[in-house]
Specification:
single chain; mainly alpha
């Protein structure tokens, strides 16, 4: 068994990272059943990341099975970017994850105290805080967390699933905006004109 296997099979760490990154979904409101599909892909991304980081190097084993030899750590598994940017990838990971979590929690707070008050008959278009600049800060947060994980530990499953996550949340955002237009009409259209979808002043 290669020497690198020493830092795998740490299943306590696997569970920790699944709870840490997967826990963000607890603050993403599910409006309809279709919302759960993108969340499921994101959670699968988290599981793949955690298992490959501290459980089993699945990508390396798959490549080894196909090509008949093991690839050294840093080529499509493990610290893939370490040779190029060193520990910078780890720092980028931390920054993006913290920023993503902040957006998710902030967005949840505003939605809970704004839009969800419609249950009491006072629901409204959320325009406070980060919603002044982007319409889907929580989805931006999930994308940032996912991107951060790739900087920290890029593997075949995460590289494949990341664009799928983006595509699914872009589609979900479009669907939700249609629902908001149906619910709030001109007010939401005016709000949409003044804001970006995911990135302030850009996208």
């Amino acid at each position: 068994m290669p020497e690198f296997m020493g830092h795998f099979h740490q299943w306590g760490a696997v569970i920790f990272f699944i709870l840490l990154y997967g826990g963000a979904l607890l603050f993403i409101p599910f409006y309809k059943k279709m919302d759960k599909k993108p969340a499921g892909v994101y959670f699968a991304f988290v599981i793949a990341f955690a298992i490959e980081m501290h459980g089993i190097p699945f990508s390396m084993l798959l490549i080894g099975a196909i090509f008949g030899e093991f690839l050294p750590e840093g080529i499509l598994w493990g610290h893939t970017l370490f040779e190029y940017i060193g520990y910078t990838g780890l720092y980028i990971n931390i920054v993006l994850v913290l920023l993503g979590l902040a957006l998710i929690l902030h967005g949840w707070y505003i939605i809970y105290h704004g839009y969800w008050k419609k249950v009491k008959g006072t629901g409204q278009v959320c325009k406070q805080g980060v919603y002044q600049y982007i319409r889907h800060p929580q989805y931006t947060g999930l994308m940032l967390i996912s991107l951060g994980m790739i900087f920290g530990w890029a593997t075949l499953p995460t590289l494949i699933m990341f664009p799928i996550i983006i595509m699914m949340y872009v589609r979900l955002a479009k669907k939700e905006e249609k629902d908001m237009i149906n619910e709030f009409g001109e007010e939401y259209l005016m709000y949409k004109e003044k804001t970006k979808k995911f990135i302030p002043f850009v996208w």
